[in-house]
Amino acid sequence: MDKKKLGKVVASVFAVMLCGTLFICNNYQKSDVIVTEGFSDSESEKEKSAERETEEQAKEPATENKVYIHVCGEVKKPGVYVFDREPRVIEAVRKAGGFTKKADTEGVNLAGSVTDGMQLIISKKSKSSNTKGKENTGSEKSSPKVNINQASKEELMTLSGIGESKASQIISYRESHGAFQKTEDIMNISGIKNGVFDKIKDFITV
Q: pTM for the complete prediction?
């Protein structure tokens, strides 16, 4: 092979090698750009996610400031109620529909404050309070009658219209005449007539 042909072959080989090198470099640069762009998009998504989390956290304190109260017992609508601040007892009861007819309202401090997470229980009226008046009436009816044959002066003076003088006369009469046979016999005492007897007849016995 002469020198001219050898020179052409060498030149061709060099040209091929140069083209291959340029092609490889070009592809490498494109790959770098793609990787960089992908990384940039990932960072952008992370930033957006962080912003969303920050916004959600900013909203949470508003929920935490709510006050939850469980109102139960003798109210018309028992349940858990939410307030913007700590309410008074009267506010919590109103939100629960108010008291029932069985509620013991006298035992409730309506001006008291209620704290978050508290259970407000409205009690029912006790049986003792409902029957108190009836028991008093019964005790009056069951009071023992005054036995005019045995009562002392002081006991006789507890009767309506019987003073110290009449009480002494009753004692003197039974000592001298013996025991009264019936309650009407008390009218044998001077000064005790139908008017006085009508007042005391239900409270005396023999």
A: 0.36
